[in-house]
Amino acid sequence: MDFGYQGKVAVITGSSKGIGRETAEQMVKLGAKVMLVARGEEKLIEAKEALSEYGEVDYVVADVKQDASAAHIIEQTIDRYGRLDILVNNAGGSFAKSFEEISISDWEQDLDLKLLGAVRMSNAALPHLKKQGGAIVNLTAVLGKTPPASSLPTTVSRAAGMAMTKAMSKDLGKYNIRVNTVCIGLIRSDQIEKKWKKEAPELGWDEYARLDKHNIPLGRIGDTAEAANVITFLCSDLASYVSGDAINIDGGAGHAL
């Protein structure tokens, strides 16, 4: 099956580890050239060395909370590879408290990274994507659809990312640019592993991942590769008629339609 990645160029933020790195690996194996982006150079060097076994990979050390950094990332990509076809906005983290606990600074920092970081990157990428069309995938979260108590500000940032994705897809479709979001549920990550080791260090990962308390219909926490599979599909030619969607990757745990 041809995913159409040969000759394509992708920029993936937050790609030194986790879902971002796994997505980069899948795309490189399918023939894409990938620019890795993160704030820590040591992890980026490790990722580049590992992924270069499969194809062309480079990296940029940058913080997407800065306008100049977003422009620099795209400039470096164009200088290195000559084009841009795919942007995966994956930079972010989890920060959740009750409304009364959150300072204005907390709100500003969360929105600046998760929402405006994607805006900055998309703005910088747009002139190049318009040349031949392409794909943007924004990573958000399932809880952005149904925010529980004490989930602020992250669920607000993610809900805003979903709304932005839908609006962008309407505006950019005329350029054959598809924009989608994947809504992440419980997926194995550094944060989830820390929780596992704190809550149940006596259990192996498979045992912990299958605990009933996670309330996942498929019965387990997901793997990073399973999230990357969906992102890789959405950025591929196989998803050429998919745009404006918010797709859950959560084992069926979400409650929204």
From TrEMBL:
UniProt keywords, alphabetically: Oxidoreductase
Residues spanning the signal sequence: none
GO molecular function terms listed in the Swiss-Prot or TrEMBL record: diacetyl reductase ((S)-acetoin forming) (NAD+) activity
Protein's UniProt keywords contain Oxidoreductase: yes
EC code: 1.1.1.304
Top EC group: oxidoreductase
Catalytic activity: (S)-acetoin + NAD(+) = diacetyl + NADH + H(+)
GO biological process: bile acid metabolic process
Pfam families: adh_short_C2 (PF13561)
Membrane-spanning parts: none
UniProt function note: Catalyzes the irreversible reduction of 2,3-butanediol to (S)-acetoin in the presence of NADH.
Family: Belongs to the short-chain dehydrogenases/reductases (SDR) family.
Protein name: Diacetyl reductase [(S)-acetoin forming]
Organism this protein belongs to: Salinicoccus cyprini
